Amino acid sequence: MKIIAILFFSLLISLQVQSQSSPEPIIQLEFWANYHLPGLAKNIPGNTKISPRSQFQSFKARQEGILFHKQEPKEVLENILSGKEISTGSYSLEFLLLHHVHTPLGFVAYFQDQAVKEINLSFSYFKDKEAEFQINQHEVLKSQELKAHDRWWYHCLVSVEENKSRIYINGQELGSTKSEDISNMNMNLALYTPESQLAINNILKELKVYDVALNEEAVQEAFKNSQRKIKTGKKYTDLFHFLAGPYLHKSDKNSINLLWEMNMPGNAIVQYGSSLPLSEEIEVEAMNPSEKGYEAFIQEVTLDGLEPGQKYFYNVKVRNYEGQEMESGVLSFKTAVEDKQGFQFAAIGDTETRPHINDKISKQIWGERPDFVIHMGDLTDGGNKEVKWQWNYEYFEGMGQLHGRIPVFPVPGNGEGRELYWYKRYHRLGAEEAFYKFSYGNAEFFMMNSNERKTEFAEGGKQYEWLEEELKKSDAKWKFVAMHHAPYSTDENDYGNAYKGKEKYGDTYVKQLIPVFEKYGVDIVFFGHLHSYSRMGPVKSESISQKEGVWYIQSGGAGGNLEDFGPTRAWFSEKVFAGHHYCLINIEGGKLVFKMYDLEGRLRDFMELEKGE
């Protein structure tokens, strides 16, 4: 068995635009998850390509598999390519991987002779900016200064000619080694990671094969192409497809807003109605990309004149300038209920870097069919203006299946950047967009932008004054505040270091709003930022008050790298859980039922609140 492999403690997406100076690949495989809801709700909007299917199998016997740093593979995808398809002489292999999960991982691609039990290895391995290539268990190439491009991406290319392999990482030649005949071998892929939900298609995004040995110029062009495509958030080089959505938000009793993004401009028709076939249509004209840039690929529309608490169906049909067409397929939504009707909503935060976790969260929440979702920020881990791909490859990748059917009301987190460039373009939430309020049933929700807490949360500050004024005039039965950063915290080290006795128990700037919460009878303050779950309170005047206190619920476990708690219980702590999770809240008149579930749908926390008429 032989192996030419690339192993990364990193993740890379290959987004490559071919130029005249670079050869065309003879084989190109995309590894996108295409997450979708189960059953009759299954829907993958637009045009897609089928990824090589994961087999989720480890080798049955050690001598038949590869131990990597003494670890068995977590997932093996066998017989991806045949050596006969590639070449018996000169060829090139290009891998694009993304490592954005803040956890050790290894990725190995190898050729195995099916008739020979003996193993001859060649693989690359990345961890903490170090690279190691092992050839035939003897020759080793290392780099101590390996750096990802765009923080998390690795472009790896192996160019083989005359039994010599040249290895390039992010356009830089790492070194060369001898090569061997692969004509009687098949390529396998293997993933090594302690994270149970992670799969190969979360790491490897594209694999290309060329029937020539790429020279230095072609290698550089391939690397630049990958950078350009990543910047745009496109998945496929040659396919008209959705980059985001359709995506529901800003829903009320008589209208709903939906948004979608394409990889090129096009004219759209939105069909909708309360039953099939769809009876209503709205046309949306394409924008000029020379004037709007990437924003020209984003379209949105508000469907209004709708009935309260009713189910509707819709379909987005798009045609680009070249005559290519696609559609979302029929999706559904429900308008907001009447003021005295009961309702259910979900609460999540910090979806961040793990679409494979977002996928499970989406499916669990969909299973309950809530009326809407509130999101406590960090939709992305750093999706500012220059890092658009985090929206397309991670957030919309994992959460899009849910939010095509269930509207979301988010607040911004530090992950969206101070300027909120893409956050504002993907959401139409009001004049300010970064902070706003909405009503649903007998409740009001006050959605804050805690990125500006240092200047706007102090008394006299913009959001302080806005919140106090809105709470003062609110006559809602239930009042909820949502933000990203923590008024109270049981975390081990985000606010001081609990293991050194220097904890601060929350964000000093956010705490300035606590008197406003208490004065105007806020029931629950939801927040995230800390990647765990904590229910705290009820707190009034820095002590527990069962009758007048405010509950604080930290729900930051929808995808970010998990965190832990201090060594002792905080005085305000009622329940903690260091795992991925989501919350469901039912309201019927003066009764509130709160539940928190883990990733497998197991109930982990429960609370009931009641109010008189």
Total beta-strand segments: 34
Q: Biggest β-sheet: count, sense, barrel?
A: 8 strands, mixed
Query: What global shape is seen?
Result: globular
The proportion of strand residues reads: 25-35%
Mean pLDDT: 87
Detail the poorly predicted runs.
1-20, 54-64, 117-126
Helical residue percent band: 10-25%
Structural class: mainly beta
Report, as a whole number of angstroms, the end-to-end distance.
75 Å
Q: If helices are DSSP runs of H or I spanning 4 or more residues, what is the number of helices?
A: 9
Radius of gyration: 26 Å
Structure description:
The protein is mostly beta strands and 613 residues long. 13% of the residues lie in helices and 34% in strands. It is built from nine helices and 34 strands. It is globular and about 80 Å long. The termini are far apart.
Please tag this protein with its features:
single chain; six-stranded antiparallel beta sheet; 9 helices
